[in-house]
Amino acid sequence: MRHRLIIPHLVRAALLGLLAAAAIAGCSQKRSVSPAGTTGELPDQEVTDFAITETDAGKQEWKLYARDAATYSARNLIVARQVRIDFYDDQGKQSSELVASQGEINQRTRNMTARGNVVLQTTEGTRLSSQELRFLNKEQKIVVPDDQLVRVQRGGDVLTGYGFESDPNLTHFEFKRQVKATVRSKTGGIIGAGGPR
Questions:
Q1: Residues of the chain with pLDDT under 50
Q2: By Cβ atoms counted within 10 A, which residue in 14, 78, 149, 154 is the most buried?
Q3: Is the separation of the CB atoms in 160 and 180 below 8 Å?
């Protein structure tokens, strides 16, 4: 059975107290929250030092940290900034880390979209970079859209292409199109470069 836990580091009671104090202070004060995107929708709640942990049958699968986050209950959405996600293997050891400028988390499915300078680094040393990446929680799968360039580096070898699917550990991955490879020999020379378009 999958358990979900939301852990905002600001205690909820403290937030309610701040809201009550703002209401008592009068209507002339401006709210510090900002609308979501172009919808103009205000968040239901904002927190700093935000964290979410996902477990399955008592095993931690991943943990997300964000500098700040806003929840939009009507859309089951959390919008976070300065995001880091730690992924864990079956033994509970950290296997990879993802960082991004911002992220969106569906509160119901726990699917996530990371945007802006996205980097996924495994403990084995493989590094993925892109401008957008999706994590499908139920499938435990990383997906990069077909229109996004992906770069994967392992040692001195570099693969680039568009569209991508993998597990969070980058153990088994697949590019969708325009794959190019640069493979280096043990002495540092380039063995092969290029690829089909």
A1: 1-38, 196-197
A2: 78
A3: yes
Name the one residue in this structure whose structure tokens are 């202070």: 25
Identify the residue whose tokens are 């569906």.
106
Q: What pLDDT was estimated at residue 111?
A: 93
In a domain, 175, yes or no: yes
In this structure, is residue 149 part of a structural domain?
yes
The pLDDT score that the predictor gives to residue 122 is: 93
**Model confidence, pTM:** 0.71
Residues of the domain holding 119: 2-25+42-194
Q: Is residue 30 part of a domain?
A: no
C-alpha to C-alpha distance for 160 and 162, rounded to whole angstroms: 7
Q: In sequence order, what are the beta bridge partners of 174?
A: 165
Calpha distance 137→134 (Å, rounded): 9
Q: Which CATH number does the domain housing residue 74 bear?
A: 2.60.450.10
Helix (H, G, I), strand (E, B) or coil at 125: coil
